Amino acid sequence: MTQPEPTPRTPQRLFSRGSFLESSRIAEVLRAETTGGMLLIAGALVAIVWANTAWSGSYADLRDLRVGPESLHLDLTLGTWAADGLLAIFFFVVGLELKREFVAGDLRDPRRAALPVVAAVGGMAVPALLYVAWNAGFDGDLAGWAIPTATDIAFAVAILAVISTHLPTGLRTFLLTLAVVDDLLAITVIAIFYTDELRPTYLLLALLPIAAFAVLVQKRIRSGWLLVPLAVVAWALVHESGVHATVAGVLLGFTVPVVRQAAGDGPGLAEHLEHLVRPISAGIAVPVFAFFAAGVDVGGLQGLRDALTDPVAVGIMLGLVVGKTIGISGSTWLLATFTRADLDDELSWVDVVGMAMLAGIGFTVSLLIGELAYGAGTPQDEHVKVGVLVGSLVATVLATIVLRSRNKVYRRIQEKEQRDADRDGVPDVYQQRDAREDPSGL
């Protein structure tokens, strides 16, 4: 008896679009990040201009102004408050995003999670290796190895808005998920490698308000009068423990439940808190941090020359521009090769390279790691800022050239993704199943 021919396995698709609900959520998040990114760029530009004028002393005085109760060891400079305090809000949103991605997003499916996770790991490992190799060869300081490993999603999507690039849904989802995984790896690096002195007692005490916060949110209690004080106490105790205080934000975000209790209960608590806190993070916390962190006094052409010849700054630029491009596109190619996956229809490897270049915009977390590695206001920290700014600028220009060259293709894909012939509110492309498409995607 003749055996039936086995059904050929449908090849996996990289950068395939997800469900309509997931795509709508991604679009909403990126709109908020675009606004925040514009404010971030504005804050950084104001700081850079101010720090290089005759009034640069007033900028330094403002940044170094101490505010807070000395008895609680919280008499911090405004710059430190921005880095330790406001960025904790940013990382709280990161915690919410991570929790949602692992519970209800792309990262819950190992096959779909493989691409952003592999790309993020490659996009951090190669820049770090390039930085170490360059500085080891030129007797530079290796402490800043993690500086070029971070991607600034707000800055990146703001650049996309400025250059008017219509990225397809699959690429936009990949960019956001990559940034989420990147943030998780970055906060892990900060907690492990940039904690100089650990005070376990304070860290153990911090678990008490975090646990109380977790109990309240698990019971779906949304009162800010209860949650905010607990979050502040947890932040203060983590700050005193020696671990960077932004870790408290991620831990608190992890405690918030994502899944709704019942179908008619409205948005889940994680979604509710994200809608409340994301505008504060994107519109206030990150731009204010950028204002206080980006104000580097270049010192004219000679100062710029000195900075750009420092192995630390050159290593950062190599990591952001070359390392991110090779790390992300190379790891994606390896994943496609070993899994025999294909790129989604109408996309090419040029798009992957363009996205990898865009990920070379490292700003917020890169500047934070620079301060932790060398100390705020030190000569090396100033060179770090120059390296991050110049590297991000070069990455922006290269990504703009590559992505703009593909804009006609992106417009065509976007029109297809928005077409709704039956006018039921859901684009037709999300209701069609191509026989060649792998439903689970990658």
What does this molecule look like?
This protein is mainly α and 442 residues long. The protein has one domain: Up-down Bundle (Na+/H+ antiporter like fold). Helix content is 68%, strand content 2%. It has helices spanning 20-51, 56-63, 78-104, 110-137, 153-162, 169-193, 200-218, 224-241, 246-255, 269-293, 300-308, 311-339, 349-358, 364-374, 379-405, 407-418, and strands spanning 13-14, 66-67, 76-77, 342-343. A two-stranded parallel sheet has the order 1-4. Strands 2-3 form a two-stranded antiparallel sheet. Strand 2 (66-67) and strand 3 form a beta hairpin. Helix 11 crosses helix 15, helix 13 runs antiparallel to helix 15 (379-405) and helix 14 runs antiparallel to helix 15 (379-405). The longest helix has 32 residues, at 20-51. The two termini are 38 Å apart.
